[in-house]
Amino acid sequence: MSGIIPDIAIRFEPGFRGKEQDSLITHREENEIVVVTITGDLNESTSIDFREYMNSLLADAHYRIIIDLDGVGYMTSLGIGVLCDMSKRTAREDGWIKLSGPNEELKDIFTFTMLTDIFNIYETVDQALEDA
Question: What is the pLDDT of residue 13?
Fold first, then answer.
C-alpha cells in the first residue's frame, strides 16, 4: 500500500505503527485478557495513535487489558492521560488495566503522580497475568 496505513488498520492489522513511525503497538489475547505491547516512546503524536488503538479494543468489548511498557523509553503527559482515560472506561465495564515492565523513569513518574493508586504495576507481563 505504498507506506500509507488507513485508519481502519488500527483495528485490523496485527501490528500498528504510529503515523510518525515512532512506536509500534501490537496486542495478543490470553485467556480473555488482552496484552498490548508498545515499542517506542509515547509522545504527543504517538499517544494519539495509542488512544485510537485502545478505542478500537474497547469497541470490540475488551475490558481486561495488560499494557506492556517494557519497550517504552518515555511517556509524555498525553500518554499518561490516555492511560487514565482508558482505566476509567474499562472500570465502567467491570474491567481493568494493569501495567507491566515500566523502566525506572516511568516508575518514578507513576509514583510521583500517584498513579500507583490507580494502576497495578508489575515487573513482567507474566506476573500481571498470574494476578489477573
Answer: 37
Strands, E, within 31-63: which ranges?
33-40
pLDDT digits (tens, 9 = 90+) for 76-112: 999 999 999 999 999 999 999 999 999 999 999 999 9
Q: Which three cell numbers stand for residue 29?
A: 489475547
Bridge pairing between strands 23-30 and 33-40: antiparallel
Angle, CA 19 vertex, CA 119 and CA 1 arms, to 5°: 130
Torsion, CA 117, CA 71, CA 29, CA 96, rounded to 10: 10
CA dist 100 and 78 (Å) reads 19
pTM of the model: 0.82
- Classify domain 9-130 at the CATH superfamily level: STAS domain (3.30.750.24)
Domain spans, the chain: 9-130
